[in-house]
Write a structure and sequence with these properties.
The complex is a heterodimer of chains A (290) and B (279). With 290 residues, chain A is of the alpha/beta class. Chain A contains nine helices and nine strands. Chain A starts with a helix and ends with a helix. Classes of the chains: A alpha/beta (290), B mainly alpha (279).
């Protein structure tokens, strides 16, 4: 395992800048996380996650609730430092300037905009950790607001916008940091079904334009297939990778047509089966414990 | 076809008009009852006083009180005395409030910022908070003398607890997601505190400031009851002791108006500082 990863790193560094095949953007090696509840008995949340994400790839992480999806996201987002294992950020981005880009930028599940700032400042404050001159901060802000279709709402306040629009603000804020990895934690889960459908199509369009590398956490199997190039299925707690499914639909997708595609239906039921096993396991466990 | 279109058009005009009329009627009812019911109580009082159902020495008829108050306001010496008393009370109120609120907000934020400060001061503040502030007024007199300083210290103390505790809880219990965003986006510490933590705590801080206003008014009047040669509390107490009920009511009304004004100022502050928190 280790030697093959090292191999991957080496070939990647040797390849000249513009050569395809797909280059790796990020490498996660043997990520482990333990929680210490009040009774003092350590509970494993992540039991060794290893994953390589290619540049420009969208990876969906799917699993039953409590499987450690969120633990993994918090580690990658820099919100949790109590873990063992390794995250290598700079595989394909050896020259990336850390003062101009974040390693990872996160879009959270619920509304994370700051209600006391207008939309423009909500984006700008996300850039204060980078060393950008004001002109560039301004140009990035307007570029990404236009990208998510909120160019006209620069001076509006979050409470004047709908839930879907606020989530677009959060997406634009993350994109404006031009991160090596865009982390999305069920970003559409709080939206109504129609808005979610529209936003899925929007995400496909936005990613195509920004060529983002994305880890997308979700428990919605259809959404994972709709958006991702690869779907990672996690086991029930303690979280491991159970299966990795390639999604062979390319990047030009239409969320409405996709649902009518028989291949989509086949993959969906395949994934359903994998996830259902794990949900069953976790139910068994909680029954056994009680 | 043309007929239905016509019908719909009339509906579109009539229905909103109906709804507007209903809304206006509801508003009118609210205002009429809001003013009318207190007037009814006053009328009842007037009748009871006139018929001798209540003791007129303590509860003269509202009309008697009103004419007494008008006489008081017409008398330059009495009016001057009232103004002097108001001035004395307002001065103590404003100085004590400003000192108490500043110390309260600063220490609340400091305690929120630094666990060390929180561990040192938290138990102290929480343990002394439930003590009625008036109970330690004698102690304050010993420390600050009989003059203005002890009364200002009392107000400062009352306002301090309100603002400090509200500010601290605002800092500690604001949306944890905002903290996650600050960390995930590597927002620098100073930016984080000035543009995220403090604004997030602002609704609680304003609540503390509003509660402090009421607290300050209660404390200043009570302190002036006990130990003062001037001030609205003294004015009321003095009138009561000579059984000048009209004069006493004059004082009460000024205090009530001050309280009402304080509430309005508090609400204005809230709208201005935290427009996003408005429902």
């Amino acid at each position: 395992m280790d030697s093959s990863l090292a191999e991957a790193v080496r070939t990647d560094q040797l390849s000249p800048p513009n050569s395809e095949p797909a280059r790796n953007a990020l490498l996660i090696r043997d990520l482990r996380r333990v929680f210490l509840p009040r009774n003092g008995e350590a509970v494993a949340a992540l039991a060794g996650i290893s994953l390589t994400v290619r540049k420009g790839e969208v990876v969906a992480v799917l699993g039953p609730s409590g499987c450690g999806k969120s633990s993994m996201l918090r580690i990658l987002a820099g919100l949790d430092t109590d873990f063992t294992g390794e995250i290598v950020w700079s595989l394909a981005n050896a020259q990336t300037d850390d003062t101009r880009h974040l390693h990872s930028a996160t879009v959270f599940q619920s509304d994370s905009t700051f209600p006391w700032m207008n939309i423009e400042n909500n984006l700008k404050i996300g850039l204060t950790g980078l060393a950008l001159d004001p002109a560039e901060a301004k140009s990035r802000t307007s570029r990404y607001l236009n990208l998510v279709g909120l160019g006209k709402f620069r001076k509006a306040y979050p409470h004047e916008l709908s839930g879907g629009m606020r989530q677009r603000v959060a997406i634009a804020r993350a994109l404006a940091t031009e991160p090596q990895l865009l982390l999305m934690d069920e970003p559409l889960a709080a939206l109504d079904a129609q808005t979610r459908l529209v936003m899925q199509q929007e995400l496909l369009r936005i990613w195509k334009e920004t060529k983002s590398t994305v880890i997308y956490i979700t428990h919605d199997i259809g959404e994972a297939l709709m958006l991702a190039d690869r779907v990672v299925v996690m086991t029930a707690r303690p979280g491991r990778i159970k299966a990795v499914q390639d999604v062979p639909f390319g990047r030009d997708r239409d969320v409405v047509e996709m649902r009518a595609n028989p291949a989509f239906g086949r993959l969906e039921s395949e994934l359903w089966r994998l996830v259902a096993e794990e949900v069953g396991h976790s139910l068994d466990k909680s029954n056994g414990a009680s | 076809m043309a007929n239905t279109a016509f019908l719909m058009e009339t509906d579109a005009v009539i229905l909103p008009r109906k709804m507007k009329r209903a809304r206006r009627a509801r508003l009118l009812k609210q205002v009429v009852l809001g003013i009318g019911f207190p007037c009814l109580l006053l009328a009842l009082w007037e009748i009871m006083a006139a018929t001798g159902a209540i003791d007129r020495r303590f509860f003269p008829a509202p009309s008697t009180i009103l004419s007494g108050m008008i006489a008081l306001l017409k008398n330059p010496q009495e009016r001057g005395q009232l103004l002097v008393d108001m001035g004395a009370t307002y001065q103590r109120l404003i100085i004590g409030y400003l000192i108490g609120a500043s110390i309260g907000i600063v220490s609340g934020i400091t305690m929120g910022l630094s666990p060390t400060a929180r561990y040192c001061l938290g138990p102290l503040v929480n343990a002394t908070f439930p003590t009625p502030k008036l109970a330690i007024f004698p102690l304050l007199i010993v420390a600050f003398g009989l003059g203005d300083a002890s009364k200002i210290a009392l107000i400062t103390l009352g306002v301090f607890y309100m603002t400090c505790i509200s500010t601290l809880s605002g800092v500690l219990h604001s949306n944890p997601l905002h903290r996650d965003v600050a960390i995930a986006f590597r927002i620098p510490a100073w930016t984080r505190w000035s543009r995220i933590v403090v604004p997030a705590a602002l609704p609680s801080i304003v609540t503390g400031l509003k509660l402090g206003l009421g607290q300050a008014l209660i404390l200043v009047v009570s302190a002036e009851f006990v130990a003062a040669q001037e001030g609205l509390g003294h004015f009321i107490w003095d009138s009561w002791q000579v059984l000048d009920v009209s004069r006493m009511f004059m004082g009460l009304i000024v205090v009530a108006i001050t309280g009402g004004g304080a509430v309005l100022i508090g609400e204005g502050l809230e709208r201005r500082l935290t427009p996003w928190a408005a429902r």
